[in-house]
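Query structure, 272 tokens:
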């Protein structure tokens, strides 16, 4: 019996290891995601210290970094399920909780229960928007977002706060406009309106020289007065979904960005 055990032990030692190699985490795209998360955290800290202009800047920095992590992952072929989940959680902090808390601390607090209700509606809609994006990834037309993207909604909130603090307005004096903007931004995130995603823009392809000149001019215009220009840009983008929807509806075109495939039973309700 002892010899049998010895032989079995020896055979086991000679067998090749069946353990799967541990999967690592790609550093580069997750570095951008962590930087975007830090931007949202920084914005909350600045709001706690009554530096609302810097809090708005933190949101915009997070938005720029968030737009880069996915592109970097695709360009370097370092996409991963971990990166997708990390990006979604970072977005919830930077573009969901942070703008709601900053808006409440700056202005909505003066409205009492109406103020925290508006802040919560925005925060909840951001969570719902991100959850729906995660489950609808395979059935949505890649050229459009279903509802206002959470970074754009956060930019509307932060841009309004930034321009108001730059012009010396007190948050309590614009509490009701902030209330309306929070509800508009939040509810627009959970609509089915189509917003252009810019995902079909190819960064690797060559472009005419005039495009580079136009980009340089755009940067120069933004530097004239960043709060005003950025807010105007995102107000225009926030309204673009309504314009596209109305134009398609008027021309008898399909307004939904959901594909017509109903292979999965749980997807059938999404096409209504």
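Result returned for the query:
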């Amino acid at each position: 019996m002892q010899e049998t055990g010895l032989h079995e032990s020896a055979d086991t030692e000679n067998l090749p290891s069946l353990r799967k190699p541990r999967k690592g985490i790609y550093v580069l795209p997750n570095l951008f995601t962590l930087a975007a998360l830090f931007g949202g955290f920084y914005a909350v800290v600045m709001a706690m210290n009554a530096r609302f202009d810097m809090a708005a800047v933190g949101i915009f920095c997070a938005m720029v970094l968030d737009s880069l992590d996915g592109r970097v992952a695709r360009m370097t072929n370092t996409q991963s399920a971990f990166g997708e989940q990390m990006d979604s959680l970072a977005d919830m902090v930077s573009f969901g909780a942070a703008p709601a808390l900053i808006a409440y601390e700056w202005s909505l607090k003066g409205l009492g229960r109406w103020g925290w209700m508006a802040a919560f509606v925005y925060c909840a809609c951001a969570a719902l928007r991100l959850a729906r994006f995660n489950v609808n990834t395979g059935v949505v037309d890649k050229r459009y977002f279903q509802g206002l993207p959470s970074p754009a909604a956060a930019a509307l909130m932060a841009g309004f706060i930034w321009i108001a603090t730059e012009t010396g307005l007190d948050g309590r004096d614009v509490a009701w406009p902030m209330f309306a903007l929070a509800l508009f931004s939040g509810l627009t995130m959970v609509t089915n309106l189509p917003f252009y995603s810019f995902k079909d823009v190819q960064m690797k392809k060559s472009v005419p020289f005039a495009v580079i000149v136009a980009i340089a001019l755009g940067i120069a215009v933004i530097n004239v007065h960043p709060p005003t220009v950025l807010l105007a840009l995102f107000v225009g983008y926030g309204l673009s979904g309504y314009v596209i929807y109305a134009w398609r509806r008027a021309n008898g075109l399909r307004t939904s960005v959901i594909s017509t495939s109903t292979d999965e039973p749980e997807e059938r309700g999404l096409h209504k």
